Amino acid sequence: MKISIEHLTKAFPSRNKKGDPVIAVNDMTIEIPSGKLVGLLGPSGCGKSTTLFMLSGLENPTAGRIMFDDEDVTTLAPERRGIGLVFQNYALYPHMTVEQNIMFPLTNMRVPKEEAKARALDAARLVQIEDLMARKPSELSGGQQQRVAIARALVKMPNVLLLDEPLSNLDARLRLQTREEIKRIQRETGITTVFVTHDQEEAMSICDIMVVMKLGIVQQIGEPQHIYDDPNNLFVANFLGTPPINVFKGKAEGGNVYIGSQAVMKKVKVPVKKLHEAEDGTVTEETTNEIISDQELYVGIRPEGFIYDEKGVLTLNVDHIEVMGRDKSVVCEHESSTKPTVRCILDSDVALPDSDKFSFNLKPNKVFLFNAETEERIL
Amino acid sequence: MAKKDNIPNDEVKNAAELDDAVVTQDAAVDADLPQESAAEAKPSAGQKIKDWFVSLWDKIKSAFVSERKNEQLALPRELVEKIPPEMLLTDVKLTKKEKVVRFLRSQSGWLFVLPAVLLMCIFTFYPIINAFVSAFKENYNATTHRFDGWGFENFKRVIMSDTGTGGASFVQCLVNTLVFTLVSVPLSTLLALLISVALNSIKPLQKAYQTVLFLPYLTNSLAMGAVFATFFTIIGTSRHVDTYGIVNIMLGWFGVEPIDWVGIGSPTWELGAITIPWAKYVVAIVYEVWSGLPFKILILFSALQSVNKQYYDAAKIDGASRSTVLWKVTAPLISPMISYLLVTGIMGGMKQYSAIVGLFGDQMGFNYDMGTMVGYIYSYIENGKTGYAFAGSVLLFIVIMIITLINTQISKKRVTY
Ligand SMILES: Nc1ncnc2c1ncn2[C@@H]1O[C@H](COP(=O)(O)OP(=O)(O)OP(=O)(O)O)[C@@H](O)[C@H]1O
Ligand SMILES: [Mg+2]
């Protein structure tokens, strides 16, 4: 089922009467193709859960429209939307066994008992908990509880599956395992799935489409790799990637980009949008590449964007080197860096001299330039 | 525990012996052993009874002698062999002196409860025991403390209603009390549940409603009973009626003939030895339900407020109807509180007295036809036949005990914590 969200907005009244309302979700417009796994990604409090609850019908939007295929569901009651929802902390009914929990949506739909049992078993098999049917939720591990919650959401064969940070309570290994499982279940069932997380790695690894949010505003939508390679702004660049991107204060002068006193890029051309008015009066937008104007910048360099070179363009003070098998990570310092350390990831077979200053060349596609004020991407 | 003392104090020589000690310290485990050898064979009734007593004794013992928990656990032999003996956290290796010190330490809590225990001994345990003993004294005279001998005469007469004229009938009082309690307590709990669910779902004026609903709790039950009686009463004589009470007036709107709800002419059903004054029953039950509500609403409402809202969201997503949510989600989630209300409500109901006096006067209706168990006991204290009062209170104790036992058995099955 295709989901179209148009101008979706949610305002919560502020606690004190006179204060401004809290805008939890701000003018969100996205289109989710049928059968895809979509990740809503953003820091805590950015409105991910609120978006999900509006999709589920538990919260009413303040403005905007939600369409499932061609049906407007904006004001439809939750139970009539055909959705399955897995809550942030599962919300399994503690007094019911696993089987009763999974069967609960079916009994409400007046499915005959035998059929309900069979379908519950199918759902349980899908998430591999068929041995635990007689237990109470309190007798299950976090991962098992989560799978019960997924089974309960899947058993009614929903058109849309919504998952609210389903992995946040699990330990690292189980999280890895379960996210693969969610991907598998999603593929097997082909249900359009919206998945909320604040863990970018999780989102990158399993999502078909990722939506990055900040303070209720959508920052960027796209395939994970695309967003990683081509972030719209400093926030998105910062949010994606482990270890995170290195950000330096820099400036453009005479077409060159400087970090400190070193020119790291020369003759830089940046795309500039211009409105071009034709003779008949139609206005078209044209993008031309022009030499960068003099300005303050943020220079973002991905950790893997460094190439060791004695005559490199950027010199960093080495703090220490971490060897991690496949590659090694050189932890450096630089006075222009916005973070205390600068991390460079190099192949483990790169030979490094015993020195406290290293120079690097930069891979052009791993370097991003951002406007210092708007933090929007320039290049 | 006898076996434990045989173990050398300084050192446990081998793990097998230790294992043995761990297993056999527990008398209950001991008793289970023969069963295990004949796993298929059903334990005999005698065996069952013996087991029951053994486990009861263990429970009592563990209530008085606090021991380390893991001492009770028989670790598997392989495990015991792997763990160095000095690291096994059981008391096996303690010297006598250490044991004594530990025991005294573990019992120091008594010091703190001593004042309360002393007071309870004087004001609770002594009267209870005294009542039990006195119930068996025949023709006991409360002023001279003289009696004719020991026996079951009091009980016999109480149960056979052979207590002379003027007093209440035991069977009548027992039936009355059981009916009042077993009808009004579940009914008022149910009503309280519905009201508190409704209260929980409204936002404006919630606090105000809550206060109003709680007000009756602050009112004296005797006074409330008397006021209630005026609602139902008919003022005047049977030949000349001045006014009907508000209930009769309202029933009149629906064409119902006025009923003498609380007076002498109140309608009754005769059922063998007992009379069922059903109109008075209605009044008593309505009163009990109403007066039981405030406390129950208070408890259930606060229980509801502590239920995680997410269960309701989940139920909404799962398409549960309102009644499904109430009976399949809400009620089980607060079932510990519901069970608490039922148990304490029934215990309280079995001891009902003052409200009935408030409603029907100190004769509890006409010649105690609305008498309760406690009313029965009072009536015999008043007319000096204390022996019957003692016997009645022992019987009341037994009845309450039986009901409470049934209650706990049911709630074990139905209540989820
Ligand atoms: N009922 C409410 N009343 C007022 N403000 C609310 C309410 N619910 C959420 N908010 C606010 O809306 C914003 C978004 O909340 P939301 O729960 O969607 O965050 P989230 O992205 O899910 O965060 P997390 O990752 O911590 O779960 C937050 O600033 C929060 O304080
Ligand atoms: Mg959330």
Which CATH class of the largest domain in chain A applies here?
Alpha Beta
How many strands in all of chain A?
22
H and E order of chain B = HHHHHHHEEHHHHEEHEEHHHHHHH
Helix-strand category of chain A: alpha+beta
Number of helices of chain A: 8
Query: How would the global form of chain A be characterised?
Result: globular
Low confidence ranges of chain B: 1-39, 67-72
| Portion in helices of chain B | 55-70%
Q: How many beta-strand segments of chain B?
A: 6
- For the record, the CATH architecture of the largest domain in chain A stands as 3-Layer(aba) Sandwich
CATH superfamily placement of the largest domain in chain A: P-loop containing nucleotide triphosphate hydrolases
Bound molecules: adenosine-5'-triphosphate, magnesium ion
Q: Average pLDDT across residues of chain B?
A: 79
The amount of beta strand of chain A, in percent, is 35-45%
Distance between the termini of chain B: 34 Å
Strand arrangement, major sheet of chain A: 6-7-8-3-9-10
Largest sheet of chain B: 2 strands, antiparallel
Taking pLDDT < 50 over at least 5 consecutive residues as the criterion, the unreliable ranges of chain A are none
For the record, the CATH architecture of the domain at 170-414 in chain B stands as: Orthogonal Bundle
